[in-house]
Amino acid sequence: MRILFVTSLFFIFMGIARAELEVGVGLSAVHVPHYIGSDESEEYFVPFPYLRYRSEKLTIDRNLIQGNMWRSGNWSLELSFGGAVKVDSDDSQARQGMEDLDFIIEAGPALHYYFLGDRTKNNALFLELPVRLATSTDFTQAQYRGFTFNPRVMWRRAYFMNGYEVRPQLSVGLRSGDDQYHEYIYGVKREFETTERPEYQARNGFGGYQIGYSTAVLSRGWLVAGFFRYVNISGASYEDSPLVSTKHNFTGGFAVAYLFQD
C-alpha cells in the first residue's frame, strides 16, 4: 500500500495536465488468504490515502495503476502493477518452520484491446494481457521471483442514480506463472520436509481462474466501496503441493473515504 501511494504521488507531481483527480483519506477492512490455495487468512483494518487519477498517460483507480506507453486504434500498451501481502510462517499451520513469504511486488507491460471505450472513459470493456516480473522484499532487500501472466477481460462503468455516482467494475480471467514464481510460494525444500509435508518442487503453467467485482458509491464528498475476488485453482500446476489446502479462495473488503473538494 505504501508503494502504491508513493508511486502515485510521483506520477502526479510530474505535472501531467488535464486530468481527473480525486484525493481523500479513508479506512478499510480487508479479508485476505495467506496465499492462493491456503485455507488460512488474515483480516486487516488499515487507514489509507485515497487517490483516483485519470489522464491520457496515467490511470490510478482503486488497486490499479496503469501508465500508457503506446496506443494505436483499439490497442494500447501500458504499465501494470500487482502484488501480495507478507506471510509470517509462524502464523501459518501449513508453513510452520519454513521461511516467511515476503511482500511480493509485480510490475510489467500489459497489452490492452478495447472492445468498448478506452482507458480514459468511464464506460469501457477491454482485454488485458499483462506480463509482470515479480520481486519479493522485506524492504531491506529484494529478490527476483519469476513472472506471472494473468489475462483477463474487464468491464467498468460510471453512472448517476438518485444523486449518487455509482462505479461498478467486473473482471474475469486466468492465472499462470513460471516455475520460479510458483516455487517461491508452493515449493517445499528438503530441509523443511516433514511427515505431513513432503519435499515438493513447483512447476510452471496454469494457476487457476478468477472472478472479481467491486462497486464504489460517491455522494457529497464521501465514498463507500466494497469488493470481492474468487479464485479457483482446480487443475493448477501446483495443485498437488502440500502447501495447498483448498481449491477455493475468497478475498474481500470494505472501505469508506472522505474526499477533499475544491
Task: Write up what this structure looks like.
23% of the residues are buried. By secondary structure, the chain is mostly beta strands. A hairpin with a 2-residue loop joins strand 12 and strand 13. Strands 1-2-3-4-5-6-7-9-11-12-13-14 form a 12-stranded antiparallel β-barrel. Mean pLDDT is 87; it is low at 1-18. Helix content is 7%, strand content 56%. The chain has helices at residues 2-12, 179-186; strands at residues 20-33, 41-54, 58-61, 64-72, 75-84, 103-116, 124-137, 142-149, 152-156, 159-161, 164-177, 205-219, 222-232, 248-260. It is globular. It has a single domain (2-260), classed as Beta Barrel (Outer membrane phospholipase (ompla), Chain C), CATH 2.40.230. This is Putative outer membrane protein. InterPro entries: MipA. Pfam families: MipA (PF06629). It is found in: Cell outer membrane. Keywords: Cell outer membrane, Membrane, Signal.
Give the total of domains: 1
Could you give the order of strands across the largest sheet?
A: 1-2-3-4-5-6-7-9-11-12-13-14
Helix content: under 10%
**CATH hierarchy: architecture:** Beta Barrel
Largest sheet: 12 strands, antiparallel, barrel
Radius of gyration: 19 Å
DSSP strand content = over 45%
